[in-house]
Design goal:
Blueprint (H helix, E strand, L loop, with lengths): L2 E2 L1 H7 L7 E5 L5 E5 L2 E5 L6 E7 L13 E6 L2 H5 L5 E3 L22 E12 L5 E12 L1
Antiparallel strand pairs: 1-9, 2-3, 2-6, 3-7, 4-5, 5-9, 6-8, 8-9
Length: 140
């Protein structure tokens, strides 16, 4: 994967499309989980992204402001495999890191967004936690 312009990433990662959160896991491994939903915010001035995860799961609960992660956009059937979440140990070579990205991404990923967390909150009417993040760099 190589860096691509934000507008190209926007075209390949449409809102509400399946997306997999890839972040640092325990003991240097990686945690991967499919998000509930994904959308772009303020695309022209300061590219930001918002996504949600169900509350009560282990994935994402330790994310703090400034933490980095990758949102990957594999084909929808591949993304569904990560609905329950998956932990890859540091020794696992099943999904090796891609050049330029700090975490492994699912096979067949078309676009990957390297992000940092800007804030998170519990949505009061649904059992989800919403994450807002800054887009650091897009890869495709």
């Amino acid at each position: 994967m190589k860096p691509i312009p934000v507008l190209d990433a926007f075209g390949s990662a449409p809102p509400r499309s399946p997306c997999v959160l890839c972040m640092k896991g325990a003991q240097g491994g990686a945690d991967l989980i499919m998000t509930e939903w994904f959308t772009w915010l303020n695309i022209k001035r300061n590219p930001m992204i918002s996504f949600s995860l169900p509350r009560g799961i282990d994935f994402g609960k330790d994310l703090r402001e400034g933490d980095e992660f990758v949102l990957a956009f594999p084909p929808p059937d591949t993304a569904l495999r990560y609905k329950q979440g998956m932990h890859l140990s540091a020794e696992n070579k099943l999904s090796p890191a891609v050049d330029g990205l700090p975490f492994p991404v699912p096979g067949g990923t078309e676009v990957a967004l390297h992000c940092s967390l800007a804030g998170a909150y519990n949505y009061p009417f649904k059992k989800v936690r919403i994450f807002n993040c800054n887009l650091e760099e897009a890869y495709g």
